[in-house]
Amino acid sequence: MLLQLLANGLCAGALYAIVALGFGLIYRTTGVFHFAHGAVYTVAAYLLYLFGATMGVPTIGAVVIALIGAAVAGVLSEVVVYRPIARRISSPLATLIGSFGIYLFTVNAIALIFGNETKVLRPGVDITFSFGPIVLTRFQLLAFLAFVAVFVGFLLFKRTQLGRLLLAFADNPMLVEVLGWNTSTIRIGVFAAGSILAGIAASLSALDVGMDPYVGMSALLMSAVAVIVGGVKVFEGAIVGGILLGIVQSLVVWRLSARWMDVFTFIILVLFLLLRPEGLLGKAVRLEEAR
Amino acid sequence: MNYLFHILVMIGIYVILTQSLNLVMGYTGLLSVCHAAFYGIGAYASTLLMTGWGVNFFVALPVAVIVSVLLSFVVSIPSLRLKGDYFVLATLGFQAIIFGIMYNWVSFTRGPYGIPGIPIPTLFGFAFDSPASYTLLSLGLAALVVTFIYLITSSQFGRVLRAIREDEIATQALGRNTVLFKTTAFALGAGIAAIAGSLYAGYVRYIDPTSFTVAESLFLVTILAIGGSGNIQGPVVGTIILVLLPEVLRFLRIPDTIAPNIRMMLYALALILVVIYRPRGIAGEYGFE
Q: Which residues of chain A are within 8 Å of residue B96 when distances are taken between CB atoms?
């Protein structure tokens, strides 16, 4: 029983970890608290629905379209909103307010077009696989495999020239610019990559349990919490935080009920902000080093 | 005529809400996204007192304010030491926790079923049961709140808050306990929001948790961003525009099923445009610059 719960938590956490990695990537490198990451997530889910369910595009093709759509949505928010704000004002809170705007606009546009009710892509019960005492559905397995692929891909990417450039950009964008790199191109790349990660998780979750226009909000909140819990300064923090959240939630569902899941998640957030704001993997830094 | 009174009552309630958020966001420069939680705490506290113990509205209201102020310390004491985005996230967390409690603790708040049959406020035998009298109550309280905010923000206290907003470390260097000032501003904001909550509960006479969501908190931030914050007129201008806009849409005969979405899209668009082109809002003094 406990093993099964841990496995469920791990698979739920795998999806959180993927979205959170995207969110953390954007937050750490560009400094934008990308609230509209939730909107990007919703856009991907609904593109999958639009092409997969209503136009009859094969699932793989629809997923690819959803990922491209997510990347476009992420890049648009950078180009249309964040860049003009950054040009005029310096406070990150102004960017955050702009991000609220993108989120509200997108989600209400989707609700207007597709309606508020839940859409499902897959009727009935999913195929299951047994591993000894643990039973997993096909999509739980897929979520876990996607997570492993993303994680390995990310570790490899970090070792490439581009990966190191990104780390450098996160630490000091100005210096990277001095070295002759175009920082706005880097930012666009970061938004595209982060949004594709959100799209992957959104597609998997949409294929499994369906969607409503507000799925993005909880995905965003989970990933923001995961990033804080794991540690903002370290990209891997998002992954650790996401998995941990998934497992904790699965235990809460077991001991209490699913209704208290959100409350517990945010109690964890508040405890971390209070006691260990640098996160599990982070190191405490002096004020002048923090950004 | 009753329709006009209804709009005026809502403007009164929202002026109280936005002015109290103004104290936190506009004067002190703290972006808080849990203001709807305090609005809800006020509504639930006074409702539970009125329906459970038969307490008079005008006794329940100050008690609700005190409850809200006390709960504000739960957020402010840990999170006011945090900076920027972290503070926003902590308030978002508090908002989600309070909503979760209102929604899930069914034996205490009746959860999603809401609480019906809230009594009409009465004062010395006079019942505020007509639209005109409730308008008077709502706008009267709003005027009191505006006066109070005006007085404290033009005092030395208000100047310290503005100093914290512009440069917290410099203010500390000048010997001010900035955390104490921020905590006080946050507590006052929370307490005043509870007045709006009680007023709302006594007006609609049925409350449920859906009036006090994250979306509502974001809506309040939107009003301040569009109208402007950091002075007295900004929030009033923002409130009047954003409360009247849905009524304008109603005259354009947009079907009720899609009207809320269209409205939110317009708000969001205005929010984005304001942040890019006019960070101080229509009539404000401060815009996170």
A: 221, 262-263, 265-266
